Amino acid sequence: MGSESLILVMGVTGAGKSYFINQLKPNSVTEGHSLVSQTKTCKLVQMKIGACTVAAVDTPGFDDDEDSDAVVLSKITRFLTTQYLLSISLKGIILLHDISSTRFSGSEKRYLNTFRQICGEHAFANVALVTTMWASVDKSIGLRREEELQIGPWADLISKGSYTFQYNGTPDMAQTIAVQMMAKDDVVLQIQEELKIGHCKLESTSAGAKLAAQLEKQLEERRKIIQDLNARLAVEKRSRNPGEKRNINQRLAAQREKQLRQIRARDELRAKIGEETEKAIEEVDNNKKRKREKWKSRLQIFAAALGPVIALTVNLILPLAGVKVG
Ligand SMILES: Nc1nc2c(ncn2[C@@H]2O[C@H](COP(=O)(O)OP(=O)(O)OP(=O)(O)O)[C@@H](O)[C@H]2O)c(=O)[nH]1
Ligand SMILES: [Mg+2]
């Protein structure tokens, strides 16, 4: 096992990803205290697990806005592409699920579908399905929900080798889960394989295609709503009803704002992430040569190439790469 292995921690907003990482290494990331998503970018946290040095990756979760799914997928994919192109080993993914939540929500379903397509079936054996927040639920209710997950949404993952854990919230159990993951062979995920073929766009991958189709449908619906509102505004202009006109104008502004966000999210899915990442790595490499700098590790290039995606975590990565930061 090298000193450059990564473990990804994934799950929807509020599943307990940042909490889990803080149990592995106290106070390393910010936990959320509201329903709004807290972690907006991938964050790398270096830690010792047994004799190995590992980096656990805190990832952003899917929110309730469907257009944010595309943005989150793009951020996670940029991270995974850089990791893959620099041959940094990935041990697997810890997928967290809040057992105290009463239903398997729409965003949870979308997340799991995208998750499956990010991984691909061959990688399911490198997935730990971890239920959290057991202290917030009656044990028998929690066990019933877990069984429903195992025979329902998680069944295909488990049949292909994913394993389950009931996480009790302690540092010890977080360590146990991470140690088991470190014992796995390295894995290459489906989306990493897909993106290396012909420099394809994110929308051409299995995970991206599904989200692109959903976004196209929403954009079409949004266009119709805006058309209707414009038609109503034209009528109101003739009837000189200022109250109704203001009302329609406000609704138009809100719909246009949503449309703009969806268009930006759609653009994220058109990005050729493989090609962009290769260019970023090349640029870092050229800079390095120009300045005659010596790099101690691929992780240093990793941090520099990812730049804006994980800019705030450079301080965490450089020590992992064996470089002291001030
Ligand atoms: N007691 C207990 N609290 C937890 C546990 N997991 C998470 N929490 C709390 O639940 C809240 C949400 O957890 P986070 O770890 O921030 O959730 P997240 O998955 O990182 O959410 P995003 O960053 O928004 O995607 C925080 O207040 C945590 O302290 C757990 O296993 N036990
Ligand atoms: Mg978080």
Automatic annotation (TrEMBL):
Domain of life: Eukaryota
Protein name: Uncharacterized protein
